[in-house]
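assembly run, all chains below
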Amino acid sequence: MIHLIILLLLATPFLGFTAGLFIEETNEKALSRLAIGSVIMQFILSSILTISWSIGGFQQINLSELNVFQNPSYHFFIDFLIDKISISFIQIGSFLALMVTIFSQYYLHREEGYKRFFLIILLFYFGYNVTILSGNFETLFLGWEILGISSFLLIAFYRHRYLPVKNAVKVFTIYRLGDVGLLLAMWLSHHFWHENVTFLKMSNANLFNEHIHEHSILGIFIALGVVLAASAKSAQFPFSFWLPRAMEGPTPSSAIFYGSLSVHMGVFLLLRIFPLIEFQLSVRILLIILGLFTFYVSTGISRVQSSIKAQVAYSSISHIGLMFVEIALGLHLLALIHFIGNAILRTYQLLISPSIVSYKIREQFYTFKPQTQTIENYFPKSWQYAMYLLCLKEWNLDSILYKYTWSPIKWLGKKLSFLTWKRSKYLIPFFLLSSLISYWVEKHFHYHLLPELSGGIALLFALKSFSEKKSAFNALFLVLFNHLFIALAVFFNEHLTWGEVLIYISGVLLSSILGFSILFFMKKKGEKLNLKRFHGHAYEYPHISIIFLIACLGLTGFPISPTFIGEDIIFSHIRDNQFILAMFVASSFVLDGLALIRIYSMLFLGPNSKTYHEVAYRNS
Amino acid sequence: MLDINSENPLERELLKIDMFKNYFEHEFDSRIGNLRENWRIKIGVDMDALVYPTLFRLLSSYLDQGIALWKFPIRDLNFLEALRHIESNGWVSIFRRKRARKIFQEQNHTIESLLEILVGENKDLYEQYIFDQQFEHQGWSGFVSELERVPTMLLDQRKIKTSEFIFLELLMEIDALDYKLGEGKWKPLEFYLDYQPKPLFAEVRETRVFTLAKIWQEAYEWSYYMPVLKGIIDNRNCVEFSQKDFQTIMCIDDRICSWRRHVEDLAPNCETFGTPGFFGLDMYFQPEGGKFYTKVCPMPMTPIYLVKEVPKGHIFSTMRKLIKARKANKTHHHDTDIHFSEHAHNSLFGWLISQFIGFFSALNLVSAVLFPKRSAATSSPFNHMEKNFPLTIENHGEEMENGLHLGFTKVEMAERVSNMLHSIGLMDNFAPIVYVIGHGSTSTNNPYYAGYDCGACSGRAGSVNARAFCLMANDYKVRELLIEKGIIIPETTFFMGGLHDTTQDVVQFFDKDIVMEETKRAKHLEYKKLMREALLRNAVERSRNFENVNKKQTPIQIHKEIKKRAVSFFEPRPEYNHATNALCIIGRRQMTKGLFLDRRAFLNSYDYRIDKDGKYLQGIVNAAAPVCGGINLEYYFSRTDNQKLGSGSKLPHNVMGLIGVANGIEGDLRPGLPSQMVEIHEPVRLMMIVEQFPDIIIDAIQANAATYEWFINEWIHLICYHPINHMMMKFQNGEFKEIQISKEMTPKMSSSQLLEAFMNQSEQLPVTLIQQPIT
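ok done. output:
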C-alpha cells in the first residue's frame, strides 16, 4: 500500500510535467487544469500516506526501489524512507503546492511563459518529493539536482531582463558550492560504511559507533560536508544574501520556493542525517554557533530592510538559523513544528506582500507617531550607526564571498588564457598521448601520483571553461575534456571497467555533440556567441534554447543522462586516502555545472541585444 | 521628405509602396548612456553592480515610510547631512576606501569637483555624464526630483534634493573605482574615450521609418475617430425629455459612461450629467482619528479648506437640525492582520509567533485561496469616509485649523454649487431627486490601488465630495443665495450623495434620512433598484474584457464573479481601469445619449447656450486637458513600450518603502503602469470633442498657456462640433479646419441586442446607435 502511494506520489508531478510538454503554449485552461489536477492528486496521496503511516504505528519504513546499476564493488539503487520527517515535509509541501498552484492559475493569467511556469513548478514538486522521500544519498542527490535546476529556471523566469538572469546565476553558484559538500559527503560515506548506505542503516547507533571508532576523522568530514550543503541551501551564514536575490520570479513562486519549500531543504537534510552528527559533539556545537550567528545577523538585516520581500526573506533565514540550533540540540519535534509554522507563515506573508502599501499607509494615516523608539535606540550612538550600516550592507557577505571564492577562480582562469579555441583543438592529440603515456607509466612504474595529475589537469580545464570570455565553443570543449581527463584519472586507479567508463562517457559525448551542433547552427545564422555579455538568443530561438539547456544538463551529469550514475561510480572508485583527487573531481563537477549554466545563460538568457522589440532597462 | 498630403502623385505612390511592401530596419540606438558605458567597455568596471545595491538601499531606507522595523537613525536632517552624521559618528563606513570617506567628511567638494576627479577637465562631458548616470536609474532619480518639488507627497516627510543624490552617487562611483582598481591607478573617464559622444540634444533626423510610423499611427487613430464623429452626427436627432423623474451627476470618468447609458436605458425619463468627480469642492478631508489631511480635489490644486469627519455628539454645524439620530455610533472599520505585524519578524517574540501563527496562516491561506472575501489586504472606497458620521462643512467665518478654513461659509458654498451647476448646464428643470455620485474602487493585494480611485480627487474615493456637495445644495440658505445667481432650485428638489464602486459595480447612498418625505423615499427606493439593475448590466458589459469569466452564466452570477474579483488576492486584474480610453466629449448629453461608445469616453456635460463668453468652458478645459489627457498619455506610453515607459508585468513587483515598486530587491523603481492594466488598451491619443463655436473654443484653450500646449502640440486631438450647422472641425496649427466625415452609416442595434453582444463578443464593438424599443 505505502509502496504504491509513494510511487504514485513521485509519478504524479512527473507525469504532469511530461504531459504538459505536449500542451500548446496558448492553451491556458488545459495547462492550469493539468497542474491543478496534479497538485490535488499529490495532496490527496500525501494525505493518504500520512494517514496510513499513522495507522501503521508511526514506524520508519524503508523501501528499496530500483537497482539502477550493480557490480560486485558498487551498487547504485533508488531507495525511499518514510518517517516523521519525510511525512511532515511531504504533507506541508503538498499543501503549499496545492494552494500556490491554485493561486497562480489566476495570477499568471495571460503572462508570457504561462506554460513554462507550470512545467517548472511541476518539475520542482517532483524534485521535492524525490528529495523528501529519499532513503539514501544517491536518491537524495537526484532530487537535489532537480531542485537546483528548477530553482534556477524559476528565478530566471523573466529571462529577458538582466537582473533576474544575473541573480539566477548567482543563486545557482551558491547551490553548486553546497553541492561540493554533498558530493564529498557521499564519497566519504561510501568508505565509511563500505557500502551505499541507506539513511535507515545510518540511524543504527551501534553500527555507527562501530564505524566511527574506525574512522573518526572521516565522520567529521562527512558531517561538515553535509553542514556546508545545508547552510548553502538554507541561506545560512555566510550564504544568506542569495535568498532575497532569488525573489525575481512572480510572487507566488518566490513565496513557495524561497519563502518556504526550497529554503527549508537544509533543515530537512540536517534532520535526515542527524544520526551522523548525533555523537559528534564538535559538529553539534558548530551547528549551534552557526545557527545562532545566522539568527542574530539576519534578524538585524531583516529589521533594516525597506523592501517587503527582502524583509520576509531575512526573517525566514533567521528562523531557519534557530531551527539549526534546535536540531543540534536534538529537539527534532520542535524543529519540525517550527518548520511547518515558518513555511506557511512566510508563504502567506509573501503572497499578500503587495497589500503592504494599502495596509501600512492606512495604518500610518491613523496611528502615525513621528519618532518611535525601538530597541536599537538604547545602543550607544556609534554602535547604533555602525550596526545599522553593517546590516544595510548585508555585512558585505556578497562581496566577501565573491572575493574569496570566485575571484581566485577567475584569476586562475585568466592565467590559463593561452587555452584559446584555436589551441584547444590540440587537446585531442594531447589527450590520446597522455592516455598512452599514463598507461605505459602505470604499467611499468605503478606511479601513484598519476590520478592526481590527470585530475589536476581536468580541474584546470574546468577552471578555464568557467572563466572563458571569448568563445562558447572553447568553453564547451573544455568541459568535455574535463570529463575525459577525470575518466583517465580514475581509470588507472583500479577496477574501473570499460562498461562503467561507457556509462560515464556516453552521456557526456552525446550531450556535447548536441551542444556543438547547436553552436554551429547559431554561428551559421550569424549570431554572436561570445561570453562577454548576455545575448538573450532565447527571444528569437526559444526552442533551440531548450535543447541547448538539455545538452548542458546532460553534460553536467543531471539525472537525465547516464553520466549522473557515472559520476557516482567515478567517486566510488576514488580511494579514501585520495582526498586530493576527490577534491579535484568534486570541484570539477561543480565548476562544470557552473560553466555550463553560465554558457547557457550568456547565450540564451538576458536582454536580447536587438532593439526592434521591447527591451527593459538593465537595472529594472 | 515625402509627405502623405503631397500634391505629387508619384510621391504618394512611393510612400504607399513603402507602407505596404517594403521592410525597414527599425533598430534604434540611444544617446543616453553612451558616455558612462565606457567604464565597462574600456576598463571592465561594472559601475552599476558596485554602486547601486548600497546607493538604492541608503536612499530607500532614508525615504522609507514604514516597512523597516529599524528605521533610518536620523530622519529630520537632509539626506546628505544625515548620512554624514552617521558616517562620522559610527565605526562602519558607507564607503569602501579612504579617499571617498575623506571627501565626504571634508565638505569642501561640489558636484563639479567630483566630476573633475571622475570625468576629467573637459566640462563639455559633465552634462552628458550626469544624464547618463541619472537615466540609468530613472525610477529613483525621478522620484527624488519629484520629492524635491513636492515634499508633502510623503506623509512622513523627508528633505532631499536631486543634487544631494547626484553628489552621493558620484562619490560612490569614485569609491567603486578606487576599490576595484586602487586609488591613483585609474584616470578620469575622458582619457579612455576614443571618440566624442554625440551631443544629447543634437537634432534627431526624421528617417523614413519615423514618417511611416507616424502615418500608420494616424491611420490607426482615425479609423477609430471617424465612426465616432459620424455617430455623433447621426445621433443629432436625439430628443430631449421635458419631464424628468430624477437626475444624476456623476464623474466624467470613462468607466462611468456605460453605467449612465444603462441607467438612461432603464429609465427613459432621467437625465444624467458628467463633471469631474470632486464636484467643484477644493478641499482637504480628515476622517475621524486620522493624523493627516487628505487632498480630495485635483492634484495641482492647493486648497485652503478642510472638511472633517466628527463622531456623533460633537457636531457644531447648523446641519445638526437636519440630521436625525444615527443608528450606531460605529468607529472606522479597519481590518487588522497579524501577518503585517512587525512582531512576525522580531527576534524572540517572533520565534514564538512563527511557531503558532504559521498554523493560523494556514487557515487564512486556505480561505483566501478558496473563498475570497474582504480582508485586511483589501482596499475599499467605502473606508474613505464613515457614512454615518457628520461632516464639518460649515464655517461661520472664524474657524481655522493649521492655516486652513474649517468648512465653507454659506456664500462660499453657494459659489461652488453655482459654478458646478453652471458648468454642466443644469440651471432649471430640476427633478425631485438629484443624485450626486462619486466613485472609488475596491481591489485586493494591489499596490496600484490609488490609480483605480477618482483622479479628480487625487486618487481617493469621491464620497466626501459627493456628500458635501449635496449637503450644501440642500441647505435652504445656500439655495436662497443661488437664486441671485440665476439658479432656482425648487423646494421639492432633494440632492442625494452616493458612492459607486467601479470594480464591484455596487452603489451606496448617503444621508437618505435627512428630510425626505415618504413619497420621495418610495421613489428613491424605486430609483435605487433601477440603478442597481443598471449596475448589473454594467457588470455584464465589463465582463466582456475578462477572459476568464464564464459568459454562459446568468447576469447575476456574472455580477457575483465580478464582485469576487475585487476581493481575490490572486487577481491581478480586478478591473481594467481606464484602459481603452480614447475620447473626451464636452457638450450636452444629447450628443451622445443613445450612442454606444464602449466605455471609451470621458463625458463632461456642458451647455454652450449658457456660456456665451466661454468662461465655464475655460474651467472645464483647464481641468480636462491635463486630467483626461494625462490619463490617456499614461496609458498610451505604458502600452507602447511597457518595459521602458510602463512598469512591465506586476507579478514580480516588490514594494519598496511604501513609496514604489521594483522588480526583485535590487531593481530600480518602476514608473508607469503594469502590463496587466494596459494590455487591452489601444494606444490612440485622446480626441476631445467640444460642442461650441470655434472662436470661443480657441479663446478658451488659449487662456492658459499650459493648457494650450496640449492642443497646439497635438498631444490631444481637438474637434469642434459646431452647434448650429453640425460641422466637425479639427484643430491644427492654431486654427479649426473642417473635416470630411465618412458617408458610411452608423450601425444600429437595440439595447437587448447589445446586451447579447456583451455576453458573446469579446472583441471591440463598433460605435453603434442604440434604438429605443417603440413603446
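The first strand of chain A starts at residue 61 and ends at 71.

Chain A has two domains: 2-359, 416-604.

not gonna interpret more than that til we talk
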